[in-house]
From TrEMBL:
This is Potassium channel subfamily K member 6. The chain crosses the membrane at residues 24-44, 98-119, 131-153, 174-200, 212-229, 241-263. Residues 96-153, 189-269 form the Potassium channel domain. GO terms for biological process: stabilization of membrane potential. Keywords: Ion channel, Ion transport, Membrane, Transmembrane, Transmembrane helix, Transport. It comes from Stegodyphus mimosarum (African social velvet spider). Its main location: membrane. PANTHER family: POTASSIUM CHANNEL, SUBFAMILY K, TWO PORE POTASSIUM CHANNEL PROTEIN SUP-9. It is found in: Membrane. It is a multi-pass membrane protein. One of its GO terms (cellular component) is plasma membrane.
Length: 321
């Protein structure tokens, strides 16, 4: 009976501090997921980085052998400056990067917080203008995207009502909800990833399909690593128009990703409300001193409530629409 009393008290504590407990649990899960990601990429990419570093050393050795009069320190300084120039978005091959299409594409990466890093302002006026543009533009972009997502959510609700009207007599409500969210996810997968990746693969001569699919995912999730950027090759035909089309793809793609997260959150919220919030089990918020508790009666109440939960879960719950 002492064990039952302790369990009952713990149940009351968890009920009163549910949000804090969940926050701690989610934080621990996030930290573990972050550590797992770091370890995974270290194992997967560390060896490749060592290989590339060795290639650089081999090239430096060949250059010093071919041009023995060039000091090694001067060569290292030249390579460092070349790397710095590339990071700042200037092409070492004298290809012009600040065209109208590139500038529009750069603005899109700012407003969507993708930030590929392929271009960056270098003048003081450009840096000040960039900060002002982003400071006003990001809230405006979020507002526009939120309006777009709201419209998509209304279409989603209309689609869900249509499914319920046609399938309610044949399938369980949860099954209909699964059909609803699965069809939306499949449509997003095709329209935002599979089909665009095929287009990018055809337009980018050096990209494989995996590269193009990887670019779509990294961009639309606003990660924006910058290792793949469309239209970098100056020989690409109609590169400005290509960049503007890529800008449109990014804006609509980011909005659809936000819509996908909203639909997913709505699905799990309804799932929890059906299976958790409607259970006939409540824990009193009244603080009961442990030394005054009638352990035997309290334990019997706890067991009785546990039986109610078990019986309720065995029955099919008619979920609210």
């Amino acid at each position: 009976m002492n064990l039952l009393a302790i369990l009952a008290c713990q149940e009351g504590f968890l009920a009163k501090n549910k949000k804090n407990v969940l926050l701690i649990f989610y934080s621990i899960c996030f930290a573990l997921y972050l550590a797992l990601g770091g370890l995974s990429f270290l194992v997967l990419e560390g060896q490749q980085e060592d290989t590339m570093q060795q290639k650089i050393l081999d090239v430096k050795t060949k250059v010093t052998r071919k041009f023995p009069d060039v000091p090694t320190e001067a060569l290292d300084e030249f390579l460092d400056e070349l790397e710095d120039i590339g990071v700042r978005g200037v092409s070492p091959t004298n290809n012009t990067k600040w065209t109208f299409g590139n500038a529009v594409f750069f603005s899109a990466t700012l407003l969507t917080t993708i930030g590929y890093g392929h271009l960056s302002p270098k003048t003081p006026h450009g840096k000040v203008a960039c900060m002002a543009y982003v400071g006003f533009g990001i809230p405006l972009t979020l507002f526009v995207l939120a309006c777009f997502v709201d419209s998509l959510m209304r279409l989603s609700e209309a689609y869900k009502r249509t499914l319920f009207n046609k399938l309610q007599g044949f399938l369980e409500p949860m099954t209909i909800r699964l059909i609803h969210i699965s069809s939306i996810m499949l449509s997003i997968l095709v329209c935002c990833f599979i089909a665009p990746a095929m287009i990018f693969q055809r337009l980018e001569s050096e990209w494989t399909y995996l590269d193009a699919l990887y670019y779509c995912f990294i961009s639309l999730t606003t990660v924006g690593l910058g290792d793949y950027v469309p239209g970098v090759d100056p020989q690409t035909p109609n590169v400005d128009l290509y960049r503007i089309c890529a800008t449109i793809f990014i804006f609509f793609g980011v909005a659809i990703m936000m819509f996908m997260m909203s639909v997913t959150a709505d699905f799990f919220q309804n799932y929890n409300s059906c299976y958790v919030e409607n259970l006939p089990f409540t824990v009193s918020s009244e603080k009961i001193p442990i030394n005054t508790v009638d352990v035997e009666s309290y334990g019997s109440i706890f067991v009785q409530n546990s039986k109610i939960i078990t019986e309720d879960l065995r029955n099919k719950i008619v979920m609210p629409r």
